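Dataset card, provenance and construction

Sequences and ligand SMILES were collected as paired inputs. For each pair, a complete structure of the chain with the small molecule in place was predicted and serialized as structure tokens. The example below shows a pair involving adenosine-5'-triphosphate. Curators did not alter the output after generation; any descriptive sentences attached to a record were derived from the structure itself.
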Amino acid sequence: MKKIEAIIQPFKLDEVKEALKGIGIDGMTISEVRGHGRQKGHKEVYRGQEYYVDLLPKIKIELVIPSGRSEEVIQTLAGSAKTGKIGDGKIFVYDVAEAVRIRNDDRGDLAL
Ligand SMILES: Nc1ncnc2c1ncn2[C@@H]1O[C@H](COP(=O)(O)OP(=O)(O)OP(=O)(O)O)[C@@H](O)[C@H]1O
Ligand SMILES: [Mg+2]
């Protein structure tokens, strides 16, 4: 299994969620986070306003998926989150050792 962690622009969340739904991804965790990339100290635009602060609001999406779907999910995420401007975000991929559905003790891919 793989864990996909994507940091995206908050205004892209609905579009990204729809795109993931479209390829049959069910489980996900969403958090409101703050961060910066390599433009630290430079301005970025958020909801039409220019910010000079270091840490901008972003959304973190975490998905655990069968390993074989990794490339498809990365492409769907990147395609739906992209504007082509700075601050679009990043995708990080991790190996996952185990997953357990607490209700019935399903394990691995079955638990996703
Ligand atoms: N190396 C990193 N480690 C952890 N989080 C990161 C890293 N780079 C970016 N992020 C997170 O992703 C968000 C968006 O990053 P961003 O898209 O601005 O990256 P970038 O490298 O500056 O690329 P760009 O030049 O396209 O803006 C950041 O606000 C931060 O939350
Ligand atoms: Mg940046």
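Derived descriptions for this record:
Residues 37-39, 86-87 surround magnesium ion (ligand 2) (CB under 6 Å).
The first strand starts at residue 2 and ends at 8.
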